[in-house]
Amino acid sequence: MLYVRGGSTQLFNIGGKPRKVQSPTEQFLQNDRTQLIELYDRAISKLYLKQYGTAVSLFDQLLTLDAEYQDAAGLRETARRKAYLEETYRKARSEEEARHWAAAASSYAQLRNEPDFPDAGARLEACELKQKVASLEAEIRRYAAAEDWRAVLASDSALSAIDSAAADPDGLATLARIALFGYQSGKTYDAPDQAPPSTGQAPTRDVQAGVRDITDVFETASGRAVGNTPAQAAVTPHSAEQAVQSRSPGSELLVVRHKGEVRAVAFSPDGGRLATGGWDNMARVWDCNNGNAIMTKETKGFLRGMIMALAFSPDGSRVAAGVMGSTAYVWDASRGNELIKVQHAAVISSVTAVAFSPDGARLATSCEDKTVRIWNASTGAYLFEISHTKAVRAVAFSLDGYRLATGSDDRVARIWNSTTGAQLLEVRHALAGVTAVAFSPDGSILATGSDDKSARVWAADSGNRLLEVRHGKPVKAVAFSPDGTRLATGGDDNVARIWNATTGAQLLEVRHDKAVRAVAFSPDGRRLATGGADYAARIWMI
Questions:
Q1: Could you tell me where the DSSP H helices lie in 98-148?
Q2: Where are the domains of the chain?
Q3: 274 pLDDT higher than 50
Q4: Which end of the chain is more exposed for a tag (fewer CB within 10 A), N or C?
């Protein structure tokens, strides 16, 4: 108890207003206001820099501290949407690169009206077109497998209307025309003066739409080849005097003819013979000096007999042939006797390329069934298999026999260990499939041809691109000269060219009337053989 004197009982006098006591929440907000402002400013900055994922994360932190902070909630949703659209665009580009046209188109459709992605509309249209092309190509292959040739032509007509460059995939529309107009009652009509019998019915409208040149089709089917030259007299050798007079580079030394596209040419190791094969189901070995046929071999079956590839064995005693129907043969090069027959799994596919190992002991065959198989070249025993993701178009051994090169519609060329099948290297054409491969004689360089209209030269050990040369249309064949200094290419622009393999300078150009499908140097390097869609194989002085 406190006692005071006087009348006042006031003990203390505290001046000023009473101090307000802050609540814990108010203290938190005041102390961390700087943090909120900093988070907001950083989030806004990331949003404008289009770093949407980071912006979303910063807005999330901000709204955890203050769920009502200014317009942060709305800006977070904007950032989330932008991030989603950006991811959708990345996904679309990836799907487009992988040629998944439908999926890419679906993704681009979400971006069509977005100002941040101005190319989405054009890419959508391109993917939709490519999807239509892919669907029609698939239809054509299904109809061809079922041998419904009228449906093949109808689908090819629709395909040609939307993309003429994609028409006649794998030559199936051409096969359909031959089947309809040159293949009746189980036989082909190949005598030069014999036309297909009349069925009493005109072709239907869809077939007429699919056939670009009916007259040419009937000439093809009846064997009336370029210039109406009968097959029995289809050789045009020049006389010795003419040959001497025409020794300048690019001079035509010899012409031999088939009754269909010549898809393969190969010189014998001694250079004295030329093997040719084509869509008339015929393989022939010719004397290069006079054009006389030394060996003629007909493959049985219509679509399953068309010859796609040829190769001489290293000793010149055998010829390997790849044909439609997933089959490859090895024949005696002099008599045509069948020595072995090997087959891939898919019946409708073609064996697109064949190659003997340098010692002649193994045979490599590439096929549209996406595989390359290695066989014992004497017995036909299956050894092993390697694969791509799409049809394989080309195969070649290196001269040492240790490596094997392959090229595929998946736009990739690969080099493999030819004994174990282990992959050693991969190179890529970004825009189109690889149609041809060839090693330089020393094995240090790989050449590839592509439907992207280019031929490229690569370092075979590192995959570095050393050179690119171009045609006006897809390149279908490549070959190195025996000394490795020159590269020959053949293309759908009807031209074969020879280039300096180091500088890319063009050295020579020769022409067919139609696409060039095959090229080969003679062993002495002084001649070039070419095979074309004009039914001719030609030997040129170089």
A1: 101-109, 120-145
A2: 30-98, 132-222, 229-541
A3: yes
A4: N
